[in-house]
Structure formats: structure tokens, C-alpha cells
Specification:
The protein is mostly helical. The chain has 3 domains: 111 residues, no CATH class; 110 residues; 42 residues. The chain is 55% helix and 0% strand. The longest helix has 110 residues. The N terminus is likely disordered.
């Protein structure tokens, strides 16, 4: 198998040169190891299609431009990023920086000197507008890209069959790693499944034990609650019985005391009530309240009539006497 193996190191003249001679690909290790000090020359490639030292395609179609013809895209991107950051800082400064407040209606802001001594501002540049007439010209086409003439000589290397890459030999480490990793992963998965099964069995056993303990705890709590409720009920019943007995004893004592106290009180009370008139004879009460007031009223009326009759008689006698006295005086 023949191929054009060229290095991608560009010189000032724009000619490709060899940087290293072809060498056999070393065997890959079983596990991946990341070494930050491993440079590009020490990297190993297992496939020629991914080797960056191999140029694929026609080399005559590639145009190598001088270094000064085009700017470095990385530098150009850095410059654009710096310019963008500067514009952003300027906009932020203009937006959030201290500003002069807007003037009131009918006023305007002017620049004033704040120094202790006045100075004449003579650095203002006079501006003048000038116009000119230009001729009409056709648009100039774009300048073609400058491509320097090719110099130097192309070189090639003949690679015989089996010198650069032997698939049957190179694939063995890869297959060993793949098969080993697959078997190891399978074993790990089997162990993981067994461990998960053991964990599930332990969890199930623990759950059953916990459920049994919870049931027992609930039974004990219910029993304790029933005993507590029964005890409280018994205490309440005993308190009620004691209160009832005490109340009965108090009633019996009060009744005995009342009987003993009222044994001498009743005769005196009855006698006092009789003296006060609460116990009376109905006939006597009727005579005193009905007959005697009527009799007194009738006597009073009779006496009043007699008094009126006597008064009228006295008036008649007085009139007759007065008339006789006047008649006797007239006769004399």
C-alpha cells in the first residue's frame, strides 16, 4: 500500500518537509491513562485514518499562502473579543455612570470652569464645511487573492504492505481490551445484581420484622390505652360513689340537726304566728273585717243625718227669732 506521508509543519518558503520518520504503533495499555505532559509527538495512533501526519487527497490542489498574507484567526478572534468587551464596558459606564440631570423648562445646561482661576478656552478647532464634485467611475472589482508561485520539490515515501499498519496484529490488543472490559463489566453487573438481590432480600426481611414490630407495638399501645381508659372509668366511678356517700351522710346529718333544732322551734313559731294573726277564727275575722266596718259606717251616717237635722232646726229657730225681734222693734 502506497500513500503520500507528509508533515503539516509549514516553513517560511511554504514547502512541506518531513519532521519524523515512520515508526510502528506501540501496543495500547489495558486501561486508559491520562498524562497531561504527553505531547503531540508522543501520542500513538492505532488507525492511519486518524493520524494527523498523513495528508489525504491531492497535495497539488493545496495553496499555501504566506504567513503575512492572512491574519491569525485566533488573534483576530481575541481582538474582536477585546473590542467587544471594551464597547460593553463603555456602554455600561455611559448607562450607570453619573450623569448631569436634565435642565428645567426654559433653561439649558452649559459648560463652566470649576477651577479657582478663569482660563481662556482656546483649544476649540474651527470647523468649515466644504463640498466637491466627483466624476462618475465604475465600481472597481475585488482584488483577486494573491497566490505566490510554487517553489521547491514534492517528496513521497513508498510504504510496502505491512510496514505501516497490520490489522490482524494491531487489532489483538484492542480485542483483548474490549473482551476484557466486556467480561469485567459483565462480572461487575452480575455481582451488582446479586448484591442488589441480597439488599432487596434484607430489605424485605427488615420490612417484615418492622411490620411485625409495628403490629406488636400497636397491640401494646391499644392494650395500654384500654387499661388506662378502664382505670380512669373505675376512678371516676369510685369518686362518684364516694361523693354520693358523702352527700348522703351530709343530708342525714343536716336532717338530724334540723329535726333537733326545730323540735323546740316549732311551738314558739306557731305561738308567734298565732299572736301575729296568721292563725285566726274565720267568724271573728269576718265580723271584724265586714260587720264592724259596716256598722260603724251606718252609725256615722245616722249621726251625720241627725247633725244635719239639728243644724237645719237651729237655722229655722234663728230665722224665726230674728223675724220676731224685728217685728217687736217695729211695734215700739
Amino acid at each position: 500500500m502506497a500513500s503520500n506521508l507528509q508533515a503539516q509543519h509549514e516553513t517560511q518558503s511554504g514547502v512541506y518537509t518531513f519532521s519524523s520518520r515512520p515508526r510502528a504503533v506501540p501496543n495500547r495499555t489495558k486501561y486508559r491513562q491520562t498524562d497531561p505532559l504527553l505531547n503531540e509527538e508522543q501520542s500513538s495512533y492505532g488507525n492511519i485514518m486518524y493520524d494527523r501526519r498523513v495528508v489525504r487527497g491531492n497535495t497539488y490542489a493545496q495553496h499555501i499562502l504566506p504567513i503575512t498574507s492572512q491574519p491569525d484567526p485566533v488573534e483576530f478572534l481575541k481582538q474582536q473579543e477585546a473590542r467587544r468587551r471594551a464597547m460593553s464596558r463603555k456602554r455600561l459606564k455611559e448607562q450607570f455612570g453619573p450623569k448631569t440631570p436634565e435642565p428645567l423648562e426654559g433653561r439649558k445646561n452649559i459648560d463652566l470652569q470649576t477651577e479657582m482661576y478663569l482660563e481662556e478656552l482656546s483649544d476649540r478647532i474651527e470647523e468649515v464645511s466644504v463640498e466637491c464634485q466627483t466624476d462618475m467611475f465604475l465600481d472597481k472589482p475585488d482584488t483577486p487573492l494573491f497566490i505566490p508561485a510554487k517553489t521547491g520539490r514534492d517528496a513521497a515515501t513508498q510504504i510496502e504492505e505491512g510496514e505501516l499498519f497490520d490489522f490482524d496484529m494491531e487489532v489483538q490488543p484492542v480485542l483483548q481490551v474490549l473482551v476484557g472490559k466486556t467480561i469485567e463489566q459483565a462480572l461487575l453487573e452480575v455481582l451488582e445484581e446479586e448484591e442488589l438481590a441480597n439488599l432487596r432480600a434484607q430489605q424485605q426481611t427488615f420490612k417484615e420484622i418492622r411490620d411485625a414490630e409495628l403490629v406488636e407495638v400497636q397491640r401494646l399501645e391499644e392494650r395500654e390505652r384500654r387499661l388506662r381508659v378502664e382505670k380512669e372509668n373505675r376512678i371516676k366511678q369510685q369518686k362518684a360513689v364516694l361523693e354520693k356517700e358523702k352527700e348522703t351522710a351530709d343530708k342525714i346529718a343536716a336532717r338530724a340537726f334540723a329535726q333537733q333544732y326545730l323540735s323546740d322551734l316549732l311551738p314558739s313559731v306557731y305561738s308567734n304566728l298565732r299572736d301575729c294573726g296568721y292563725f285566726y277564727d274565720p267568724v271573728q275575722r269576718d265580723i271584724e273585717t265586714e260587720f264592724l266596718p259596716w256598722l260603724m259606717q251606718e252609725v256615722s251616717n245616722a249621726l251625720e243625718q241627725k247633725y244635719v237635722a239639728r243644724t237645719v232646726l237651729d237655722m229655722l229657730i234663728q230665722d224665726v227669732t230674728n223675724q220676731r225681734f224685728e217685728a217687736f222693734q217695729v211695734q215700739e
